[in-house]
Amino acid sequence: MMRHKRNQIMNNKINWGILGCGGIANKFAYSAKAVNDAEVIAAASRTEGKAEAFAAKHGIENVYTDYTSLLNNNDVDAVYVATTHNYHYENIKEILEAGKHVLCEKPMTVNGAEMRALKALAAEKKLFMMEGMWTRFIPAIVYVRELLDRKVIGEIKQIRATFGFKFPFEPEHRLFNPALAGGAMLDAGIYPLSFANMVMREKPVEIKALAEIGTTGVDVQSTYIFRYESGALAMLNSTVNAPVVSRAEIIGTEGRITLPERFHGADEVCLDLIDSDTVKKRFEYDDKVGFQFEISAASQSIREGKLENEIMPLSDTVQLMETIDEIKDQLGLVYDNDKRR
Questions:
Q1: Quick check: helix, strand or coil at residue 23?
Q2: pLDDT at 12
Q3: Strand 156-164 versus strand 38-44 pairing type
Q4: Beta bridge partners of 46
Q5: Distance CA 207, CA 203 (A)
Q6: List of domains in the chain
Q7: Residue 79's pLDDT is what?
Q8: Helix (H, G, I), strand (E, B), or coil: what is residue 108?
Q9: Which pTM value belongs to this model?
Q10: Is 315 exposed, middle or buried (0-12, 13-18, 19+ CB in 10 A)?
Q11: pLDDT digit string (tens) for 110-135?
């Protein structure tokens, strides 16, 4: 039965289910409509009335008030996890045990132990799994990787990246609630942290972290400085309580690559080489359906029978979560998920 199902997947579009029907799930549902080989056919939320309203908004046929019922739908090939961070591990575990492929919102887990356990389970079940770091799949970032592969700016010496925003303080909101694994690092910091991971393709050998800890016990702004074996440095920042300019820069021995404001959804790349004029290249797309690139990549990987996607491999996510563990230790951040390590 499983082999027959996988043969069908290889020849057809991927049917997606969604767990959690909050704001980020809306972007996934809109984006999936822009992908020819993917369709959202089911949605589930444990909050009364939320799944029904979400499904009506996006024209989704199957609606559930519990996750298990969605996972029992044999027409669902893969599941997108859009719940709060603290639930990711248990949600993904249940999905894998139900025999479904997984695309999970970032961060995929709250710590490295959870991520390593899920990676092993996905391999055991021979199922596709990927962290939903949509930034890596947008055209501008694909171009950045091409420049890095060609060593256009020479040897990398520095990475600078900031992402954040000012959000009204609400103690129970997921951004500030420690029970929901809130905080600037896990919500906003994941972008510069993953960006540095993509650029360097290795773990730093030295990590220094500083933060402002808010009244609820989570970081409301934090800074991370990395040193790599080559001597390259990364200076990364995140915040949920200040209106920063979210931009990124990669500096090499022969020049620099700059992603202007809102780098996580970049539509422009600036290349400055020594003794050369700035070259700007535009990559326009509709941000409302900005997840289309990662959905397309994940769907294609599943159809081809792959267990990972080479642009966002599980080894990168493991490295990232282990780096986050070190940062949390330095900042004294301990979530409920960490107590179960």
A1: helix
A2: 84
A3: unpaired
A4: none
A5: 10
A6: 2-132 (3.40.50.720), 139-284+320-339 (3.30.360.10)
A7: 98
A8: coil
A9: 0.95
A10: exposed
A11: 999 999 999 999 999 999 999 999 99
